[in-house]
Amino acid sequence: MYIKKALFLISAVSTLPFMTSCVDDKYDLSDIDTTVKVDVNHLTIPVNIDQIDLSSIIDLDEEDNIKVIDGQYVIVEEGDFNSDEINIPDITLSTPHIPTSETVINLKGASSMLRAVDSWEYDLKSNESVYDFKSTIVSEMIVSIDYLGCELSLDINISLDGVSQYVNGFTFKNVVLQIPKGLKLTDAAGGNYNPSTGELTFTQIRVNGSATDLHLVANGLDFKQSGGTYDYQNSTISVPGSMYIKSGTVLVQASDIKGGTTSLPQQIKLVTSYTLSDAHVASFSGKVRYDIDGADLTDVSLSDLPDVLTQESTNLSFVNPMIYLQIDNPLQSYNIYARTGLKISAYRGDVASPPSPSISTSV
Description:
Elements: H1 2-20, E1 66-69, E2 72-75, E3 91-93, E4 101-106, E5 119-123, E6 129-134, E7 142-161, E8 169-178, E9 183-187, E10 192-194, E11 199-208, E12 211-222, H2 223-226, E13 229-231, E14 236-253, E15 267-276, E16 279-288, E17 339-342, E18 347-348, E19 351-352, E20 359-362
Antiparallel strand pairs: 1-2, 3-16, 4-15, 5-14, 6-14, 7-12, 7-15, 7-16, 8-11, 8-14, 9-12, 10-11, 13-14, 17-20, 18-19
């Protein structure tokens, strides 16, 4: 390499006198075109653009719905709406027709002759009296029912037909009555009531004459316990059931026998009748579907953005958007809960993008 370079330099020096001898002092160089033209087929010029902050292109006013909170740009849209008064028409469970039950009961074991024994017993058991406690038309806003707050009464009459000619009175012992389930009794007429089974029990009931009346008072009905059904399509309530004497004993003692009586009948007719009063519903628990109209808030618009962000070729991507929805339920203290939700759609002009999945919450 060094040899060749040396030769090149020597050759260049040796030709220098020859080149010098060819210079024409009168040659005019001012007419020479000094423009340099370079043909380039593909040219890429890198352009580095620094990060653009929103603060450099958006001017915020106090009236704008775009705010800076904790260093974050947020869109604040506030609005209030009030629903109409929730008014559910009166509900009444009307007095059902309950047929009177007549049952023949038999003297137990002992002779009917008075001189043989000093007390007599009859089996106490009646046939069923079927009923269906139905309502007037129920508001379509009611979806389901768990409990009905209502004042109602139940009157039960139990009589032994024709015994007044034999006795002055008698005693019902260990009586078990089947009445509607789920009643919230405030007066059980001296008996013990089990709302889950509907059994009303008495250790004894003293009867003077041939009949007794039991007056029961309730101020509510557990709808689920009662076996009631709510037909949403037809907007009616039905509480079916049956009432009867499940078991017990009629005790006649010697002191109950009228003078001149020598024997008691082997069979007696037991007559039971039931009367359920109207039940005017004052309150209830369950689910209500109540649609609130006029709750649309003002659309959020980004129309005040600079031109550089509103061109058709400019797409804005919102990274990690957070939406806060605050709804107050004034009835929550009454254990009345509401469910609401929202969908978000983005528009460019009049063209909407597919809406977001529905977001729902309970309040």
